[in-house]
Amino acid sequence: MNFGRGRSREEPEINLIPMIDILLVIIIFLMLTTTYSRFAGLEINLPTADAQASADKPAEINVAVTATGEVVINKRPVSGSGIGAIAAAMQAVVSPGAKDPVVIINADAKAAHQRVIDVMQAAQQVGLVHISFATQAIQR
Q1: Is the pTM here over 0.85, yes or no?
Q2: In a designed cystine with 122, which of 67, 73, 86, 138 is the match (CB 3.0 to 4.6 A)?
């Protein structure tokens, strides 16, 4: 029996450099792919659509001002040229049960600005306070 040291076994060598390289690559990957935010989450209330809400839609009065200065209210031309004639035509169009009708003015690009102001003054005389302007994108 030979209890002496014969052939000496070499101590296992642990090389940490490749393991450190792999850990650094993983850390860099996580830093580049992770997004950081100051807040954990934002609560956003998105709008919802309801088909029943269209019944409460306010009445609309469509007023068109042509390039020649003619005023057309709900596809009916106004017979006079003054503010009083426009106001009378608007008053005739407003239904008695309408709740705050909206006047939508659609003027031609070459219409006189004064004519649009006349329509606005006529709406004010009738007591219509909600006025909107229709716009259309120019297609080229």
Answers
A1: no
A2: 86
